[in-house]
């Protein structure tokens, strides 16, 4: 029994390390979209996706702030679709309506809890690491 638990733990750690290694170059490229006018929030929102899987991230966006959301996957821009929803699941923004733009600036009037969902553009990638970065305007 202890051997099974240890094996499971080792596999979980190895998978996590492998995922981080896979995502690192994508995150580095994605950071280029958070320009000098923006301060990164310090978080890397990452997920390994296959097929039609969706990564979900819950955030609070504070009123009076402009945020830049950068979304990257694969070796080129435009592979990752992202959508921002309010708590009632109304779409506030989706980059699908903007040719899969790899980043977008969101001006927030009042503080709001949102859910960001990311999934791969099936016409461009079947699997990969999804990276979302968020910065706020100086």
Quick overview of this protein structure:
This protein has 138 residues and is of the alpha+beta class.
List the helices and strands and how they pair.
Blueprint: H1 2-30, E1 38-40, E2 45-50, E3 55-61, E4 65-72, E5 80-85, E6 91-94, E7 103-108, E8 112-120, E9 127-137
Antiparallel strand pairs: 1-9, 2-9, 3-8, 4-7, 4-9, 5-6, 5-8
Overall CATH architecture: Sandwich
Count of distinct strands: 9
What ranges have pLDDT less than 50 throughout 5 or more consecutive residues?
Answer: 11-18
Number of helices: 1
- The tally of domains stands at 1
CATH class: Mainly Beta
Provide the succession of SSEs: HEEEEEEEEE
Beta-strand percentage? 35-45%
Q: Kindly name the structural category.
A: alpha+beta
Output mean pLDDT. 87
Biggest beta sheet attributes: 5 strands, antiparallel
Structure description:
With 138 residues, this protein is of the alpha+beta class. It has a single domain, classed as Sandwich (Jelly Rolls). The protein contains one helix and nine strands, in the order αβββββββββ. It has one helix at residues 2-30, and strands at 38-40, 45-50, 55-61, 65-72, 80-85, 91-94, 103-108, 112-120, 127-137. The strands form two sheets. Strands 1, 2, 4, 7 and 9 form a five-stranded antiparallel sheet that branches. Strands 3-8-5-6 form a four-stranded antiparallel sheet, with no helix packed on it. A hairpin with a 5-residue loop joins strand 5 (80-85) and strand 6. The longest helix is centred in the first third of the chain and has 29 residues, at 2-30. The N and C termini lie far apart (54 Å). Mean pLDDT is 87; it is low at 11-18.
């Amino acid at each position: 029994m202890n051997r099974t638990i240890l094996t499971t733990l080792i596999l979980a750690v190895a998978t996590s390390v492998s995922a981080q290694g896979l995502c690192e170059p994508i995150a580095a490229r994605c950071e280029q979209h958070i320009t000098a006018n923006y301060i990164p929030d310090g978080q890397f929102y990452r997920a390994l996706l296959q097929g039609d899987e969706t990564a979900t991230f819950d955030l609070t966006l504070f009123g009076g702030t402009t945020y830049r959301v950068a979304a990257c996957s694969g070796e080129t821009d435009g592979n990752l679709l992202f959508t921002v929803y309010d708590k009632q699941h109304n779409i506030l923004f989706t980059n699908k309506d903007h040719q899969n733009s790899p980043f977008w600036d969101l001006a927030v009037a009042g503080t709001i809890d949102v859910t960001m969902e990311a999934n791969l553009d099936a016409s461009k990638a079947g699997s990969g690491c999804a990276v979302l970065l968020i910065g706020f305007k100086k």
